[in-house]
Write a structure and sequence with these properties.
About 35% of the residues lie in helices and about 15% in strands. The chain is α/β, with parallel strands linked by helices.
């Protein structure tokens, strides 16, 4: 089955995001495999993680972005010293090293994880635009699912080196925004600033900061995901 790479929110983990996506995974089990990845840095619990996902069982909580000692976030997902592998490059390596069967076709992120999704999609588009030859085994994602996201996509090394930051992401995306979510307005800003409206599908749902859990909502979400593929 084709695979979707999944990126959890800030102050969460792959196992927490798996639990949050349980119904989705079940309902799409004949269509996709969902594979969940852990972020490299640790931090305190993110919104909605406690009290359900205790540290004893689910910790340490993780984040895709590090901060410098003065609290400034590094947009490229590197460690606070700015050395080593970039965040987008790391995420792509994790996917490539996963092994297993099934073509990688999509990306799904929750909250901060949507920034990893955006970073990978933007990087992929830029490679195509620049005519960078496709390496053997290079991934080609067909869609992204962004749940309760906000803020800018993670900046890949290729994006950092190229000047036209204004290019909108045209790879098809599905954006889930919670109308009761503190991220709601910033989610709209994320959508408008970085995604082409003609290829983005948006669903505003009367939720706080959470994945769909009511059965009817999950079923609708499933249908929307099927339409992407």
């Amino acid at each position: 089955l084709p695979r979707i790479a999944c990126f959890h929110g800030g102050g969460s983990t792959a196992s927490i995001f798996t639990v949050q996506s349980e119904q989705l995974i079940k309902l799409l089990s004949n269509t996709f495999q969902f594979v969940f990845f852990d972020a490299p840095f640790t931090r305190d619990a993110g919104p909605g993680v406690l009290p359900i996902f205790t540290y004893d069982k689910y910790g340490p909580y993780r984040t895709w972005f590090s901060r410098s000692p003065d609290g400034t976030e590094r947009p490229d997902g590197r460690g606070e010293d700015g050395r080593g592998e970039g965040g987008v490059e790391r995420a792509l390596r994790l996917i490539a090293e996963e092994g297993g069967e099934g073509e990688w076709v999509g990306l799904m992120g929750f909250s901060q994880g949507t920034r990893v999704v955006g970073g990978i999609l933007a990087d992929q588009m830029r490679r195509r635009e620049m005519g960078v030859p496709r390496a053997e085994g290079e991934l080609d994602f067909r869609f992204g699912i962004l749940c309760m996201g906000a803020a800018a996509p993670m900046v890949s090394d290729l994006m950092h080196a190229s000047l036209s930051e204004e290019d909108l992401i045209t790879i098809p995306t599905l954006h889930l925004h919670g109308t009761k979510d503190v991220n709601y307005e910033n989610g709209k800003k994320q959508l408008k600033a970085y995604y082409d409206q003609s290829t983005a599908t948006v669903w505003d749902i009367a939720y706080h900061h959470a994945m769909p859990w009511y059965r009817a909502d999950v079923l609708k979400f499933v249908e929307m995901i099927r339409k992407l593929y």
